[in-house]
Amino acid sequence: GFEKNEQVIILAATNRPDILDPALLRPGRFDRKITVPPPDLKGREEILRVHTKNKKLAPDVDLNLLARRTPGFVGADLENLCNEAALLAARRKKGAIEMQDFEDAIDRVIAGVERKSHIISEEEKVRIAYHEAGHALVSKLIPKADPVHRISIIPRGQALGYVLQLPLEDKYLFSKEELLDRLTSILGGRAAEELVFDEITTGAQDDLEKATEVAKKMVVSYGMSERVGPINLGRDNGNVFLGEDLILNRDHSEKMSALVDEEIKRILEECYERAKRLLQENRAALKRIAEELLKVEVLEGKRLDELLTEVGAEAETATA
To answer: Phi then psi for 156, rounded to 5 degrees?
Structure first.
């Protein structure tokens, strides 16, 4: 209308601000923009208190510890976690929700429901065990990887196995060394397959996608390549280069494009060779972890530490 003040407040929300029509954000339309990030540690603990206040909890339930084990979870994830834990406790005919119910619920939320009908051959199960053991062992040997909380070779969702790594605290900034360590850890599964079986399988597809994305961002967005230099080659529109998150600015030369590709390949190859070297130097530990996984299927972080102590695994003393 033509009234100066119609006493109407218009609110809008989106989780994809990058695709909004710029016309919507012009002055006089949506003037005030409020960013709501995922909750931090304290926020997650408070949200857990809200969703568990009407649920009977066992004395061993530690909401602060659960908050530490759920980095990146938003309110809906935490609500789902509490509901899943309650369902598991009810199915197990417990009078209260125990910490183990929450631990199992975290697995369900992160990795999906266990696929009991999915039959895996013994040969493939051995490969999966070595693959996951490779991830876990490399993560334990390098200095800046997140702690390993659990390893599993039980199929869940689309995954045949997984390694659950949880940071000690919420983190918002990452150094080049930390990203290189993350890449080395991601590539540890593929490296273990090649080392043990002298061939690779399609099981590392997701790992390669994740690793390539991290390496691309290091070169294109974070300025972490000495040859490319401290430059950001991404922008908000253009040809899709990193899926929905990053788009390559094609205003630069073909020579620069080739250099970017070379640097991404170099970073991935160096991290892959580093992972293989660490596994080769600690091959006894790799075998011991895989054998234990084949026996118990799920290996907790504490037990992993015990195994590494038994075989005398040697952590990397300096970044390669």
So the answer is: -140, 135
Q: Which residue is catalytic, options 132, 193, 263, 292?
A: 132
Distance CA 143, CA 319 (A): 8
pLDDT digits (tens, 9 = 90+) for 113-132: 766 666 788 899 999 999 99
Which single residue is written with the structure tokens 């994740």? 210
Rounded CA gap, 285 and 308, in Å? 6
**Helix, strand, or coil (residue 300):** strand
**pTM of structure:** 0.77
**Amino acid (one-letter) located at 270:** E
Please tell me the total count of domains within the chain: 2
Continuous segment of H or E residues that includes residue 291? helix 283-296
Distance of CA 181 to CAs 7, 202, 289, Å?
A: 54, 23, 21
- Catalytic residue check, 269: no
Which amino acid type is present at position 302? K
Q: Which of 52, 82, 111 is the last residue of a domain?
A: 111
Please indicate, yes or no, whether residues 97 and 167 belong to a single structural domain of this protein: no
Euclidean distance between CA atoms 137 and 60, whole angstroms: 30
Report the alpha-carbon distance of residue 100 to residue 300 in Å, rounded. 12
Which structure tokens are listed for 281?
């130097």
